[in-house]
Queue: 3 jobs
Job 1
Amino acid sequence: MWDDQDFEQLARETNEAERPAAPSLKARLYTALIREQQASGPLEALTETRENGRGLCVFEHLVTIAPMNSLQPVFYCQVCHARVLAERLDRPPIWWPHCPYAHFH
């Protein structure tokens, strides 16, 4: 039977525990987590997100100023090219503020 000391020894012996995850893996995990959250219930509305102190990316901001009041809270990143780049490249050319995928690299 394994105990905590065995796992600590195993962690010391491997360098994999010290290596950070690849940015593209982080992006894919973020997408999967948000989609899982979306499947369990509605996401927070963009106006609520902004009121709670989180900045909106360029595309989310455009949705908030567009004259479409009937939009349901959805995962807008699913149609954004930044998500596609971040999930496939470890150094994607994403530079705009408040994009969650820009923070992974």
Job 2
Amino acid sequence: MKLKPEKLYEEYVEDVILRCENAVNQEEQEEEELKSLPVDILIKEFERIILEDEKYRKSKNQSLFNNLKKRIIPRACCYMFWDTKEIKELFNYRKSKLTQINEDKILTEKQKQVKRGVVDAYVDITLENMFDKLPEKDKEKCLQKYYAHLVSTFRADQDVRKDIQKILEKDGTIDPTLDKGNCTKAIIASLIKLEKKYDIKIFKHLKRDGLENLLHPKQLIEYLAPYVKKSETGNIKDIEDIKRGDICILSFGDGPPRHAMMCYDFNSKEEPLLLGFSSNTLNYNGFYQNIGQTPHKGIVIDIQALINDVCKNKVKIKKKIKDNSR
């Protein structure tokens, strides 16, 4: 049977979309159910699930747990009142300041990082002060809503991770100490499913001990270098011919590409819409304006070209076997 690359490509895209839609729907449904529970029960479940995550990653200092706990109040306040004028003005101020820092040609990246930290600290203190002024009933509601969001998010992430591990487990072991989230591997898992189903070699040099190289943005870019598309400006929005199914790896600030998302649709302006994992996201249109009011930098991996080449090579291999048998 002749392989049709367009069929395989569509199958890959739809599999990633389904995984993301399921995760997003699970989050929304569970959050709605959880936010009616008392705060003390939600806190216990949050602590249980975070510590379970730390155990999976073999973390000894509980850094994720401690960092999240430190910023619960400002994040809860922000989550509860995101659509209010006061919060919007605060974050417009933050964006303005970050733009100034990011565009400063004199500051080193380390100095910029320190200044961005000062801006974020100011925002957190302002949010904490806003929270302190709330009536006790509203404080409880605020925490209730945010803890429900946290628990549902981590549960969905863990379920995605378990689904991915079932797909990948025959190809090697994932190192939990290197696991920063599902963003890359939740997309790559669909390509590996395709590889197994059709007996093709998308990752033809993959060894059992090399699986890890496909599951992180930096290594994936190196591995699929022939299919990487860049722009002269470094901005993703300036890369030509972004297609449904392309893997877009975004940078944050001036850092290297580090967060993988997939283009799965386009809006009314024909701008790409992205989906992603950790956090589970649909309808993201961040090419044109990120947190610092500057376009996202990064690269794009052309998966359609990869699958086309894989199918051609498969046909060549089959033809060679047939010829040799005559």
Job 3
Amino acid sequence: MDEVKLNAALARINEFKNAVLRQYTAGLLSEIELDTQLYGLQVMYREALHELGLRDVHARNRDTMKRYELDYRLWAFGGKPDSADGEPWLLRLEGESEASSDERAALFDLAKDALLEIFAFDFPPDDIEKPVRHLRVYDNGTRVIVPFDCTDDGGLLACDDPRGKRFFLTASNGLHAMIEIDEGAGLDYRPSWKAGSQYRGLIAVEGYTVEGLHSKGTVNIAHGKIDSVSYTNSRWVWRDDAHVRMICDEEEIEATDAVSILTRQGERNEEAFRGYPRWQACFEWERKHPPRLLSSSRKEYIEALLKEAGS
């Protein structure tokens, strides 16, 4: 555990908080603006984890979540987060080895100072079909990645020049996707799809987007086979409600999370996802099994900050 890097990251986080609070107490920020500014702490949190060479995978499955919750409860009561019951929920970037108890404690220290809420949540039973999608969040938008075990690519991989053409894909679970390959791509595009990385264009993914080609996206290839499709929404604003886990930047997370989306296209995609018949049993189960807040709420964090600033 690199204590120097950890202490430097904690210092940056707290300096940022203090700077925002000074602006607020000077009357330069409203409470809403204060709250908005403090969301910047979440980016700093992700950057600190990366600097420490750590990757949080706590939402991967039941076993990682079980151990994550046990470790958090140990840490919250002043103990060492050294639970061995369940799969590792925090990994080192190099070699994907398990993080030490000190590194796990460092994550919780960073999360607390960055005002992040810590949730534990359950997973639906195996006999309930669960939609799987992952988000990669950037400053200018959100890429939604959907695993897609393709059994019929509609001739896409065999096509010498797919630019400007439309292809229909079928996954092993019966879902379909459609992509119209970017016809305006230059010669630099050919090595990309010849090498088997991805095809870009307008895309629709059954169960995840509205019908019709309204979203930009990609068909992604690994080991000579289509293994996922993705589409892009413009920047999302996360609601502070029961479904939101850790709000983060450039992190892949399970995305049954509730969100508000700034663009109408993003809203339409989310409406299609939420209304898709095959996902309703899962959503109903989730409504009956809401996440459990283990830490203070964001509201409590901010109230404590304001109280401290006013004392």
